[in-house]
TrEMBL record:
UniProt-recorded Gene Ontology molecular function terms: hydrolase activity
Organism: Bacteroides sedimenti
Record-linked PANTHER family: MUREIN DD-ENDOPEPTIDASE MEPH-RELATED (PTHR47053)
Name of the featured protein: Hydrolase Nlp/P60
Cited InterPro entries: NLP_P60_dom, Papain-like_cys_pep_sf, Peptidase_C40, SH3_16
Family classification: Belongs to the peptidase C40 family.
Length: 256
């Protein structure tokens, strides 16, 4: 197996070939990958959407041909733009739960899409381009619990939130905060930040380790403990609940 697709709602992508190994991110339904190595019941893969490398359980992957892999372009395929959607397999009648940002190969406007020999149908309204702002989309994830490596509305980390929200608006960005910080256009001053801009934060060693989305002037929505809104200024994120600064502001980027 050289190429594969995620044909289940999500697959944990781990640092090593072990169920106890750290989950670094997830493959969502419809995301394809290149298989570079095998180890027992595990496969080392490269996620086509973002270039992330890690290990997944082989039996959770569905093999695809080189032609299918090339056709499944994550930057061109429509995606689920609601927090959750339910698709029905028209061949078997079975239902599958999809989360926001899931990729829909060979999608048609009637709400049908196809993965290999299986055709599915979902509500076309769950795939319509978002007429709301990036910030409004991010607000729909409020109270989602923090999960290291997660990128769906049942559990996500800080960069999982920003990546999925951007994808739901047709923008494909990288996975980790430090990688996302290399993209976009620099906003020189926090006073010039607009809702939807991404703010990045670092540790004392200068390493970027956190990201959130600028909300109304002076506020940010981010995932730390859960997805919530805190104050933002030139120093960083201030938690009124804890009465302290929790993250040091490094830079702000604009993607639209």
């Amino acid at each position: 197996m050289e190429y594969a697709i995620c044909f289940v709602p999500n697959i944990p992508l781990r640092a090593d070939h072990d169920e106890c190994s750290e989950m670094m991110t997830e493959l969502l339904f419809g995301e394809s990958c290149t298989v570079t190595e095998s180890w027992g019941s595990w496969s080392k893969i490269i996620n086509k959407a973002e270039g992330y490398v890690g290990w997944v359980t082989t039996k959770m992957l569905t093999p695809v041909s080189k032609e299918e892999f090339d056709a499944y372009d994550p930057t061109l395929q429509p995606v689920v733009t609601t927090l959750f959607s339910q698709a029905v397999n028209e061949n078997t009648g079975e239902k599958i739960l999809l989360t926001g940002g899931s990729v829909l190969p060979e999608y048609h406007e009637d709400g049908t899409f196809r993965v290999k020999n299986d055709r599915f149908r979902l509500n076309p309204a769950d795939v319509l381009p978002q007429n709301e702002s990036l910030l409004d989309t991010a607000r729909r994830f409020l109270n989602t619990p923090y999960l290291w490596g997660g990128k769906n509305a049942m559990g996500m980390d800080c960069s999982g939130l920003t990546q999925v929200v951007m994808r739901m608006h047709g923008l494909q960005i990288l996975r980790n905060a430090s990688h996302q910080a290399t993209q976009g256009e620099l906003v020189p001053f926090v006073s010039e930040a607009l809702p939807g801009d991404l703010a990045f934060f670092d540790h004392a060693d200068g390493k970027i380790s956190h990201v959130g989305m600028v909300a109304e002037p002076g506020y940010i929505i981010h995932c730390s403990g859960n997805v919530h809104i805190d104050k933002l200024d030139g120093e960083g994120i201030f938690s009124e609940e804890r009465n302290m600064y929790t993250h040091n502001l490094r830079l702000i980027k604009r993607f639209l």
